[in-house]
């Protein structure tokens, strides 16, 4: 795969992790690997490449069996980081410089697009989320109590299946969270 396809600097390529089943960035010559894109990446080109080649378009029914009969839930999220986030970098931007207020304006716009335009959180997360889970439509898989940051976890566990949260602020940034239900569950309910 050439860097012209991906927007990555020369020598870098996108590979898929066997353990996390997520794409990551790898340089075969130096053996350097990372979850965040290397310096010199063209974020617009990488965004297009990842949306075409590494996005998830829906949730397979078989993965729901992993969480049945347990106190674990499955969620997706859309994350907007700001310069005061604990790691102000993402696959989209090597260095995030936007203020908290700018990040809030941005996530409020995504929230509006979901509410008023009927956009799905998963589709928006694929191209707009600052989390590496964007490659899977924001899908974080199953998690239990104590696995996530407290603010995120508290909001996620309060959601009904299919519901999308109001904006949640954590040390990572600002999130919209959707809790998944059984296959076929409508995802348009809101928890404001």
Automatic annotation (TrEMBL):
GO terms for cellular component: cytosol; nucleus. Residues 70-181 form the PpiC domain. Residues 19-43 are annotated as: Disordered. This is Peptidyl-prolyl cis-trans isomerase. SUPFAM superfamilies: FKBP-like, WW domain. It comes from the Eukaryota. Its EC number is 5.2.1.8. GO terms for molecular function: peptidyl-prolyl cis-trans isomerase activity. PROSITE patterns: PPIC_PPIASE_2 (PS50198), WW_DOMAIN_1 (PS01159), WW_DOMAIN_2 (PS50020). Residues 6-40 form the WW domain. InterPro entries: PPIase_dom_sf (IPR046357), PPIase_Pin1 (IPR051370), PPIase_PpiC (IPR000297), WW_dom (IPR001202), WW_dom_sf (IPR036020). It catalyses: [protein]-peptidylproline (omega=180) = [protein]-peptidylproline (omega=0). GO terms for biological process: positive regulation of transcription initiation by RNA polymerase II. Keywords: Isomerase, Rotamase. Coiled coil: none annotated.
């Amino acid at each position: 795969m050439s860097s012209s396809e991906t927007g990555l600097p020369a020598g870098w390529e996108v590979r898929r992790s066997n353990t996390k089943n997520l794409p990551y960035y790898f340089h075969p010559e130096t053996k350097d690997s990372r979850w965040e894109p290397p310096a010199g990446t063209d974020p617009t080109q990488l965004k297009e490449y990842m949306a075409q080649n590494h996005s998830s378009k829906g949730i397979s029914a078989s993965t729901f069996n992993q969480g049945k009969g347990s106190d674990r839930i499955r969620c997706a999220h859309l994350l907007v980081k700001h310069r005061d986030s604990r790691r102000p970098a993402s696959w989209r931007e090597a260095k995030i410089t936007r203020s908290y207020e700018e990040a809030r304006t941005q996530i409020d716009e995504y929230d509006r697009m979901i509410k008023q335009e009927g956009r799905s959180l998963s589709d928006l997360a694929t191209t707009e989320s600052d989390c590496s889970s964007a490659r899977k439509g924001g899908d974080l898989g199953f998690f239990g109590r104590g696995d996530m940051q407290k603010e995120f976890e508290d909001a996620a566990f309060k959601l009904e299946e299919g519901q999308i949260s109001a904006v949640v602020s954590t040390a990572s940034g600002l999130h919209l969270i959707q809790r998944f239900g059984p296959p076929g569950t409508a995802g348009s309910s809101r928890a404001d």
